[in-house]
């Protein structure tokens, strides 16, 4: 079942490859239906994951390279069930938004589908080899996707993004290989390795440098300060659907892999570094927040905002307690949906105005495009943590978790909420409210199902899970409890 | 020589026969003269089939030996021979395309390709220093002539002379080294030398000097720092099919000899040379990858990037042991398939665009999606991106380095992946992002078929790694 999440987009990419490039409409249809199918599967997986029984479900295990102990071992736990839903949602919306791509549709669709497949691959793999395989496979399609179909400074931005993320990835590859050799099991299987290291942990010094490779290697894609600089410029250059997937989902692979690899395999080493991660995450929150305040380009504002919000995720992770880590995973979901929605809306405006500068847009767009404006205001509210959206619940959980462990950084992080509110409210005011200073005669609001569905879908998810957070939290909690049960020593049990 | 001995020599004998056929046809049959390329390519394909049959019969065991054990047909030799003949076939296809434009007599060019190939085949089977030296010389001398083949082109002649001088120097070093080894062990036969080395309690300094000189001589072929200086200039000056043959065939020949000597002859001394190899590997990695960044000429570009790949191969040799040797073989398999695909595109572009400048590749994706797609796939595979074969090759190499505790070398190798990704992506940028520099380029079917097959190989080896890992493992398992 879950292997289909990878196979359907890959098979569709192959199908598109074999089609003549003139048949754009059919190519678009293939992309759309392939993402629709994976969306339904991801919803099904999410709904049928049983939080009560917990653990790994939907397991598949096939030998791949037997002499090295590589198996295609896939499965879903509480955390990945939520991430799969996120990716299903965002990639489907992304496929719908991609209709605005008019040039070289065939090549675009191939790279887009490979990207979608690889991210599903990461979220379903339980084998270190395949985790890395899919992870690196997800990074590379970004290069042509941004370089060819992007805007503003695209060649520089895409090279910087690819090299930064690959740099982080190869460092963690050395960590993965060291873990494989150190265990001596001749196996890349995460569950086997986890049990092995729980029974006979590595020496503390080894754990520390391994954890450093894994945490800071994957920290690059989570835009951990000071390796965040690829992120705003990359999003600004990327086409909408790619920004959506990158800010919404790909970035979450960083904290996800930290949980999967660092936290479970080198727990003591992770514990050693987490106070430093907490410190850096506060820099993320405040520094990126201030940067967002002075930006003039809509995508740069949201780009820095996403760097800032990843700070909350990492802070939650650094708490190493049930509340904090669950909050971090919930925020990964909520921020992912929110960021996707924001980039989709900005892309919608940019396609028609060909500018994203706040002062050039001139304000008052709310009168002309009320539907998009309302969606954007809702997204901004969600991002600033207004109750009613799931972001609020997530941030509260992170603060509760972090307060017990790092009171001062938490105080600074709470102040970050204020910073977020300032730049987002100002953006909303300057773009959508007030008088129209520039007239955009050709500007049209979102019309019809095809244009409205992605926005409605994403915002509906934020609202539904905002009012019924337990739908997500019970799955996440099942996953996090499992983590805690495996590594009781590094987690602080909350009263 | 009995029948079994002759059977183990069969591919070599057939290549010699093919040389006679080509020679005779070139002299006496003007009607076939035009189709000599096709004849050579098909002949080599038949020889490849014969070799695969040998491999099938051998089934992972030693197939046979002859000439008093100096010629050994073991799984590793068969593995390398298959790669050499594959390279030979593609180089003949490249040469045919190239010679269409150059107003030259094609017969002698094909003969030179075949004689270099014959040297490589003997080298893969050499189990004695004398045969090793003779086959290395056969390869190198054929390359001297091929490099200087464009007699009226100054750069080609200059490259030939440069290669001749440095090549002669390295042959001299190698022979001098062999003489020290012979002096201390009393034999040139690999098994006897290995036995003598096992018996030694301490290593005499002159014997170590001999080993060092031998490694230096082979390092020249493999393109290891500090013996790499000839590569960019010779690659640039040589006719482009020769560049392809040098960068795939000659480099593989260097590693075939280096690997056999490391795993079978001087294995008893592995502690002594492992660190030296690791340092050479590190320097080669950094030199090749940094050197490739500013290149503007596609031949020099592949020259430097090839030095970078030699760095990864030396990393695996430095790691040594079973996993290191397996890593070398898998890496060479992936490297050969990938580089041959890349050179099919590069030679075709070079002949039809009449430029070796990288700016000629601007907008190639819209001039010919097939050529651009194939080069894109090869470049990403060379950079080590999954799901392509180059990724798994680097994965095995780095894994073997980590296994032997060479973590620093593994980290350096990993960081070099990022550097190499940078310069490979600059070429991708030219092909996909820059506006096209001309009209559509048509590719004939005779070129499309090998291109598609090699592309399939790049993806296939990268996704279904199991059988190829088993193949590489069975080729080296006899030594451990």
3D architecture notes:
The complex is a heterodimer of chains A (495) and B (480). Chain A has 495 residues and is mainly alpha-helical. Chain A has one domain (3-486). In chain A, 75% of the residues lie in helices and 3% in strands. Chain A has helices at residues 3-18, 24-48, 78-97, 105-124, 128-139, 142-149, 154-183, 190-199, 204-219, 230-237, 240-248, 253-265, 267-294, 298-319, 322-353, 358-361, 365-368, 370-383, 390-405, 407-432, 448-467, 470-486, and strands at 57-65, 70-76. Chain A has a two-stranded antiparallel ribbon. In chain A, a hairpin with a 4-residue loop joins β1 (57-65) and β2 (70-76). In chain A, α5 (128-139) packs antiparallel against α7 and α19 (390-405) packs parallel to α21 (448-467). The relative contact order of chain A is 0.11. The model of chain A has no long low-confidence stretch (mean pLDDT 87). Chain B is mainly α. Chain B has a domain at 271-480. Helices cover 79% and strands 1% of the residues of chain B. Chain B has 21 helices and 2 strands. Chain B has helices at 3-8, 10-28, 30-33, 36-58, 75-101, 106-125, 129-147, 154-185, 190-199, 205-222, 230-237, 240-265, 270-292, 298-319, 321-353, 364-367, 369-383, 389-403, 407-432, 445-463, 466-476; strands at 64-66, 71-73. Chain B has a two-stranded antiparallel sheet with strand order 1-2. In chain B, α12 (240-265) runs antiparallel to α15, α14 runs antiparallel to α15 (321-353) and α17 runs antiparallel to α19. The radius of gyration of chain B is 21 Å and the shape is globular. The two termini of chain B are 29 Å apart. The mean pLDDT of chain B is 88. The interface between A and B is medium-sized, with 34 and 32 residues.
């Amino acid at each position: 079942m879950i292997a289909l999440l990878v196979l359907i987009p890959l098979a569709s990419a192959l199908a598109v490859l074999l089609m003549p490039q003139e048949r754009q409409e059919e190519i678009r249809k293939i992309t759309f239906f392939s993402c629709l199918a994976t969306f339904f599967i991801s919803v099904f997986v999410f709904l049928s994951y049983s939080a009560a029984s917990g653990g790994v479900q939907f397991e598949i295990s096939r030998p791949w390279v037997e002499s090295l102990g590589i198996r295609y071992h896939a499965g879903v736990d509480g955390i990945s069930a939520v991430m799969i839903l996120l990716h299903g949602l965002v990639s489907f919306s992304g496929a719908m938004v991609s209709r605005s791509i008019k040039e070289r549709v065939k090549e675009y669709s191939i790279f887009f589908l490979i990207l979608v497949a690889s991210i599903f691959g990461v979220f379903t793999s339980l084998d270190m080899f395949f985790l890395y395989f899919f992870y690196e496979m997800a990074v590379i399609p970004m290069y042509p996707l941004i370089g060819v179909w992007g805007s503003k400074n695209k060649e520089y931005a895409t090279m910087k993004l690819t090299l930064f993320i690959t740099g982080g990835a190869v460092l963690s590859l050395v960590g993965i290989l060291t873990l494989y050799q150190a265990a001596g099991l001749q196996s890349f299987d995460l569950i086997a390795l986890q049990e092995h290291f729980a029974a006979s942990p590595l020496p503390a010094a080894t754990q520390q440098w391994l954890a450093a490779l894994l945490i800071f290697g994957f920290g690059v894609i989570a835009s951990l300060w000071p390796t965040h600089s690829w992120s705003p410029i990359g999003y600004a250059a990327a086409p909408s659907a790619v920004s959506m997937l990158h800010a919404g989902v790909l970035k979450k692979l960083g904290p996800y892999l930290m949980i999967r690899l660092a936290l479970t395999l080198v727990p003591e080493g992770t514990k050693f570094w987490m106070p430093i991660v907490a410190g850096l995450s506060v820099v993320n929150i405040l520094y990126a927040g201030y940067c967002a305040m002075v930006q003039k380009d809509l995508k740069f504002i949201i780009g820095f905002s996403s760097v800032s919000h990843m700070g909350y995720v990492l802070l939650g992770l650094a708490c190493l307690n049930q509340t904090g880590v669950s909050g971090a995973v919930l925020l990964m979901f909520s921020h992912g949906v929110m960021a996707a929605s924001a980039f989709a809306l900005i892309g919608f405006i940019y396609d028609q105005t060909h500018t994203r500068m706040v002062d050039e847009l001139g304000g008052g767009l709310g009168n002309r495009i009320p539907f998009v404006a309302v969606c954007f205001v809702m997204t901004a509210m969600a991002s600033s943590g207004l109750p009613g959206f799931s972001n609020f619940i997530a941030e509260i959980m992170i603060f509760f978790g972090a307060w017990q462990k790092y009171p001062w950084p938490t105080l600074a992080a709470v102040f970050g909420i204020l910073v977020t509110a300032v730049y987002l409210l100002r953006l909303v005011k300057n773009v959508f409210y007030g008088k129209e200073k520039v007239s955009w005669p050709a500007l049209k609001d979102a019309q019809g199902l095809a244009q409205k569905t992605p926005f409605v879908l994403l915002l509906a998810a934020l609202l539904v899970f905002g009012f019924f957070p337990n739908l997500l939290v019970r799955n996440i909690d099942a996953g996090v409890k499992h983590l805690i049960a495996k590594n009781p020593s590094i987690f602080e049990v909350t009263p | 020589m009995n029948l079994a001995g002759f059977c183990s020599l069969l591919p070599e004998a057939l290549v010699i026969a093919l040389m006679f056929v080509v020679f005779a046809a070139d002299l006496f049959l003007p009607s076939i003269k035009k189709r000599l390329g096709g004849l050579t390519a098909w002949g080599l394909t038949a020889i490849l089939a014969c070799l695969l049959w040998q491999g099938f019969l051998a089934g992972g065991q030693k197939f046979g030996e002859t000439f008093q054990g100096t010629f050994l047909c073991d799984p590793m030799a068969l593995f390398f021979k298959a790669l050499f003949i594959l390279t030979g076939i593609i180089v003949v296809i490249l040469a045919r395309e190239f010679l269409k434009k150059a107003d030259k007599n094609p017969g002698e060019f094909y003969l030179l390709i075949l004689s270099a190939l014959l040297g490589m085949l003997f080298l893969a089977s050499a189990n004695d220093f004398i045969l090793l030296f003779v086959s290395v010389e056969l390869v190198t001398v054929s390359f001297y002539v091929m490099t200087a083949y464009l007699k009226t082109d100054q750069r080609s002649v200059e490259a030939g002379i440069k290669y001749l001088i440095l090549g002669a120097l390295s042959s001299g070093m190698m022979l001098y080294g062999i003489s020290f080894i012979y002096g201390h062990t009393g034999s040139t036969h690999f098994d006897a030398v290995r036995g003598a080395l096992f018996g030694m309690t301490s290593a005499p300094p002159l014997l170590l000097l001999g080993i060092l000189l031998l490694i230096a001589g082979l390092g020249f072929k493999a393109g290891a720092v500090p013996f790499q200086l000839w590569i960019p200039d010779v690659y640039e000056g040589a006719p482009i099919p020769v560049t392809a043959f040098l960068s795939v065939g000659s480099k593989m020949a260097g590693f075939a000899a280096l690997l056999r000597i490391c795993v079978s002859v001087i294995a008893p001394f592995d502690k002594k040379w492992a660190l030296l190899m690791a340092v050479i590997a590190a320097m080669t990695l950094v030199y090749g990858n940094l050197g490739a960044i500013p290149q503007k000429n596609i031949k020099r570009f592949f020259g430097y990037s090839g030095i970078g790949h030699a760095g990864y191969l030396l990393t695996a040799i430095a790691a040594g042991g079973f996993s290191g040797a397996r890593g070398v073989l898998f890496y060479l398999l992936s490297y050969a398939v990938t580089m041959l695909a890349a050179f099919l595109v590069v030679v075709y572009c070079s002949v039809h665009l009449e430029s070796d400048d990288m700016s000629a590749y601007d907008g190639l994706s819209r001039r010919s999606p097939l050529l651009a797609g194939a080069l894109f796939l090869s470049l990403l595979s060379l950079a080590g991106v999954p799901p392509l074969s180059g990724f798994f090759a680097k994965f095995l190499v780095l894994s073997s380095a980590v296994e032997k505790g060479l973590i620093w070398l593994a980290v350096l190798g990993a960081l070099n992946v990022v550097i190499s990704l940078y310069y490979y992506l600059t070429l991708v940028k030219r092909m996909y992002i820059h506006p096209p520099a001309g009209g559509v380029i048509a590719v004939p079917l005779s070129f499309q078929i090998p291109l598609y097959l090699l592309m399939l190989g790049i993806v296939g080896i990268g996704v279904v790694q199991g059988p190829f890992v088993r193949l590489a493992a069975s080729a080296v398992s006899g030594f451990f």
